[in-house]
Amino acid sequence: MSATLKLENQDIETVSSSGIDLSEKTRSASFYQQDSHTKLYKSLHEGVDILSTEEALAKYPEAKDYFGKNFRLLNRDFPQDTDGGYFIRVKKGKTVEFPIQACLFLKAQGFKQRVHNLIIIEEGARVYLITGCSASQSADEGFHLGISEFFLKKNAYLNFTMIHSWKKDVTVKPISIAHLEDNAVFVSNYVCLRPVKEIIMYPTAVLEGNKAKAVFNSLILSHPDSLEDVGSRVILRGFDTQAEINARAVSLGGKVIARGHIKAENQNVKGHLECRGLVLSQKGHIHAIPEMETDFRDVDLSHEAAIGKISQDEIEYLCARGFTKEQAQSIIIRGFMDVNILGLPDLLKKEIEKIEDASLKGGL
Amino acid sequence: MLKVENLTIEIGGKDIIQDINLEIKKGEVVILFGPNGCGKTTLLKTIMGFSGYRIKSGNIIFKDKPLNNLPIEERVKLGIGIMYQHPPKIRGVKLQQLAQYLTKDEKEISELTQKLTLEEHLKRDVNVDFSGGEMKRSELFQVLLQDPELLLLDEPESGVDIENIGVMGGALNEYLKQEGKSALIITHTGYILDYINAKRGCVLLDGKFWCVGDPKEMFGAIRKSGYDKCKECICPQH
Q1: How far is it, in rounded angstroms, from Cα B156 to Cα B147?
Q2: B88 to chain A, minimum CA–CA distance in Å?
Q3: pTM
Q4: Are A236 and A262 spatial neighbours (Cβ–Cβ below 8 Å)?
Q5: B138 at the A interface (CB within 8 A)?
Q6: Where along chain B do its domains lie?
Q7: What percent of chain A has pLDDT over 70?
Q8: Residue B233: per-residue pLDDT
């Protein structure tokens, strides 16, 4: 294990494009795994434990209880053949100002990366976690399976932002389940702006505690020959719990399936699902599948979906302010993929805006 | 400055404006009256060059340049600006971003923001969750920052409360008092006439101009007798 991370030049840009600050200056803790090797983990904050899952399982007896716990809760199986992943624990009552970062990188040709991550936010702790997943130019036909289990104790706050920056022959399958206790807030952001062969994911949040809240946001730019089948599910199990699912997808020729499912398992719960899609190419395809479910009367569940091309009205409105048609389109797309919806602090917001600008420039 | 010559406009195969003529001189403000559906908005949008409005015959000339085939943004460059009646929402784009594109003068932005009480709106997405009155103020804000020579205003005061009509009317009047600024303004309520110095009004009925005269007098007569009487009045067609 080295104290600092040394990457080949060609990989630096790729890793940075997934939101990783290689200087670590603006991060409170870092984890870096390449293929199945943990290359670095380091915490600069007394309130943050960060290490590989394997080492955590050996070091902390309680880690074993967490491993697979959320799957057992939902009676779901999970792949056992994982190798690596990170264990992050933020201690009770700690507010961590700078984000924690974790990088999962594919390097070897045809490598199949399978990780199992455990994220524990103890009572009253608050933190931003950014996970960047990317693939080196050499990682042809790569595969990434990422299991993540989140445990948010009472009054905990976690803003988890996952940025995917793959390449067009990589297949990706994240599987996530979050468990929330009373008053916990989980904001899960998913950003995927570069080509990929196929991504299939349907993360779930179980809001067990009363007054817990989960928000899932996604920004997807789908390139030709990519398939992004991306959903979010929230189970409102506690009293007075809340869910928001907000998906924005732009197809440049790829196929996007935007799923969403909110299930009310208690009274006095609230959920809203919103999906907006723009299809910019004849070959593009967007399929929005919002689902809502309740056995109770006293719930407030709603959804809104709008997909299609950019409205001519909006383009002409901006032209009437002096923009050319091309400028107007790019302003509208940029606004549509609004990073503000992710609820991030300024620093992270600006970083992601930069990544988005570069991707949109390349894509359009 | 603006000349409309024998203009016939068609929407979806139907003639909405039929063979009209109109001239607006430099520094002149012209008021356009007419019942709903008579073609007022169609005329403004055609001058601006929006899609869906086909010029079947005739010409629109601005500063001696024919506009008929120019894209919208080229007309803007020549000095035409429009204030929308029903502007679309532009999600994720802040009013401030548009303002900073329209002028580099931050002081001007800040002064006009205060004048039109839009301080809170600068950081919001353009027209998203704006009330009717807020939209009008934001529209006037943008078009004044654009600094056009010819202003096209489509019902600037509709849906605006009395106090804000005063605020908007004041800002508009100040703008139009500048050298060489012209306007073509649609109004139903006539409130805007109390704030600006307009010498000519026209009534548009069934796609044709029927009457030309002093806008305040015309508005009084229309309020009293309705648009049908305009046809009987038989002022010489403009």
Answers
A1: 17
A2: 6
A3: 0.87
A4: yes
A5: no
A6: 1-16+54-77, 79-210+226-238
A7: 99
A8: 64
